[in-house]
Specification:
By secondary structure, the chain is α/β, with parallel strands linked by helices. The chain is 48% helix and 14% strand. It contains seven helices and five strands. The chain is globular and about 80 Å long.
Length: 198
């Protein structure tokens, strides 16, 4: 009688033990799925890039007349062109994929932001004079998932009064101005910090 009881007790324990393992595996799988969905719903960046250890993708977008850096008013904008500065920035951040685009045309800038603004980890935007006039850029920025940092080479608040107001600042994650070309590096650092938090 004792042997029969022990046999059934052993079967019950084994069934319960294996059932517990199966439940734990199901719970772990469910937690992993929830973590991925959480990343997918966070604003800013592509969660698949972070899960696969892919490099961050950042777009630097310059607006009108910034193709003339190094030539245009060097007392304000400096003597270096952006083409000279960009390799230095890429060398400093080899693990970040930095794409650069410049246009003097508002619609082309919007098209570029819409192209990358749902998959890239961030956009660094110097909209130039469009900063003070473009409702269209404001609306575009608000529609994107990627965070946008507004940058300016000069301190616009020390210049003409019409430059003191930005139509895009309220749509951006943050604003950096007045540090010369180093404003772009500071913006990149801000995006790296945002990526780590997310």
């Amino acid at each position: 009688m004792f042997i029969v009881f022990f046999h059934f007790y052993y079967l019950w324990l084994r069934r319960r033990y294996f059932h517990s393992i199966i439940q734990k595996k199901r719970t772990l799988s469910f937690c992993i799925l929830l973590a991925y969905l959480y990343l997918c719903t966070k604003k800013g960046g592509n969660p698949a890039n972070r899960l696969n250890n892919k490099p961050m993708k950042i777009l630097i977008l310059n607006g009108p007349n910034l193709n003339l850096l190094g030539v245009r008013e060097p007392g304000i904008y400096g003597n270096s062109s952006f083409d000279e500065y960009l390799p230095q920035l890429r060398a400093k951040y080899p693990d970040v994929e930095i794409e650069y685009y410049q246009s003097n045309i508002e619609g082309e800038m919007i098209n570029k932001m819409q192209e990358v603004g749902f998959t890239y980890d961030g956009i660094i935007l110097n909209a130039g004079a469009y900063t003070h006039t473009s409702v269209a850029l404001h609306d575009c920025i608000r529609s994107l998932k990627s965070p946008v940092i507004e940058v300016h080479i000069s301190n616009v608040h020390q210049r003409e009064p019409f430059r003191h107001h930005s139509l895009i600042s309220s749509a951006c994650k943050g604003v950096i101005c007045g540090f010369g070309l180093d404003s772009y590096r500071l913006a990149l650092e801000a995006l790296l910090t945002l990526n780590i938090k997310h």
